Amino acid sequence: MAAATIKSVQCISPAGLHRMAYKEWGDSANPRVLVCVHGVTRVGDDFDALAANLSDRYRVVCPDVVGRGRSGRLRNPMFYAIPQYVSDMVTLVARVTANSPEGEAKVDWFGTSMGGLIGMVLAGQPEAPIGKLVLNDIGPTLDPVAMQRIAAYIAQELSFDSFEQGKQFVREVSASFGAHTDAQWNKLAADVLRQNEQGRWVRHYDMGLAEPLKQSTPESAKAGEAALWAAYDAIHCPTLLVRGANSDLLSRQTAEQMLQRGPKPQFAEIADTGHAPTFIDPAQIAIARNFLLGQ
Question: Best label site of 33, 60, 68, 200, fewest CB within 10 Å?
């Protein structure tokens, strides 16, 4: 696997400054950049296999969204929301395209779940810096039962006596990722677990992520969905929509609506997988590579 480096960029929220770490693969001078953004409690390390595969053609940048992994934490947890994440990504894109010729400061984007929502909102802006967009198992309409499941998972304050116990928990709650080898499950767990000062294993994110979800109301959820559809309909770049065939977050009905609206994306459905495909498997990686590189 190709070598990667860890870097960071300083961002700002209304509560102050924070740092966002990112993992960079490939030639740091390559003006062709792919940004890969993870799901709500995951980290940029999720994309190691995909990034290693694509680093022959791209500089691949995989951030830990603020509040997760190596990145800083927000002083006010109520800013753990899509507008703040989009703002941070604008800062990141400016950093990684700083040496691009004027007028060519664009990146391609691969977003899983939350990372797809961030990409959707950014790509829907006028003068958006996204050239090609992959939305991995996410859309503007989010199944409410699935959202309740995810919110409950985020809010659980858990710790484990051993890494093995933590790994078993991650494997159980991530069963919808589909079949993986023991080695792959080990990495999927290791990426999101850390040992605290008491020697116990905990999940590697700020528990404050749950705060905005606790404040959500049916009215705010409805307004959020309308805003996401407006952003989606404003997207003009080539787009690929990926759906896990068993996904409980991106329904078949929503996917069909997306195919008729906005960027009218290409579509790939992955069998025997729910929310969300991990793009560790070579066959899944090939779907992304073929779309992004036109092969």
Answer: 200
